[in-house]
């Protein structure tokens, strides 16, 4: 497994993957912080395409990522994460919407749990899922990060600058 770091507008991201797939993208502020494992090898070249796509995303010129992802999780989690990939750039939906889309209309809480366990932030856009009442709900990178990403995708300037990073 390889890792690298990427300086983004929302802080330094930890990129983890192999030569074919991205396995993790973690925020510097995370409710479950992950650092580079001692068995991983730093290899910035492995993440060239991901870096280019993240650059374009943060410039507002990339709407859909093409990098190959291989998140580790249960079958249900992977089903939810695949549904997240269907949410269009700049759009939002609710946990109930995702539950319905995967044929489990009463599983909103389970969808929320799977959403919160998404290991590939930004590329698998769990930040686009909000509460039924329209409020921002939990996010591994923090609610300020979620707000910033949604504002960015809406073409708005976020109220929460990340100058403390």
Topology overview:
Elements: E1 2-8, E2 11-17, E3 22-26, E4 41-42, H1 48-59, H2 75-84, E5 93-94, H3 95-101, H4 108-116, E6 129-130, H5 143-153
Parallel strand pairs: 1-4, 5-6
Antiparallel strand pairs: 1-2, 2-3
What report would you give on this structure?
- The chain has 165 residues and is an alpha/beta fold.
- 30% of the residues lie in helices and 15% in strands.
- The chain is built from five helices and six strands, in the order ββββααβααβα.
- It has a four-stranded mixed sheet with strand order 3-2-1-4, with helices on one face. A two-stranded parallel sheet has the order 5-6.
- A hairpin with a 4-residue loop joins β2 (11-17) and β3.
- α2 packs across α4 (108-116) and α3 packs across α4 (108-116).
- Residues 161-165 have low confidence and may be disordered.
What attributes characterize this protein structure?
single chain, 165 residues, alpha/beta, four-stranded mixed sheet, two-stranded parallel sheet, 5 helices, 6 strands, 15% strand, globular, disordered C terminus
Give the helix/strand class. alpha/beta
Give the SSE string: EEEEHHEHHEH
Q: Average pLDDT, to the nearest integer? A: 89
Number of helices: 5
- Approximately what portion of the residues adopt beta-strand conformation? 15-25%
| Strand ordering within the main sheet | 3-2-1-4
Q: Approximately how much helix is present in the residues?
A: 25-40%
For the sheet with most strands, the description reads: 4 strands, mixed
| Termini separation | 27 Å
The low-pLDDT segments are: 161-165
Global outline: globular
Q: Care to count the β-strands?
A: 6
* Spatial extent as radius of gyration: 15 Å
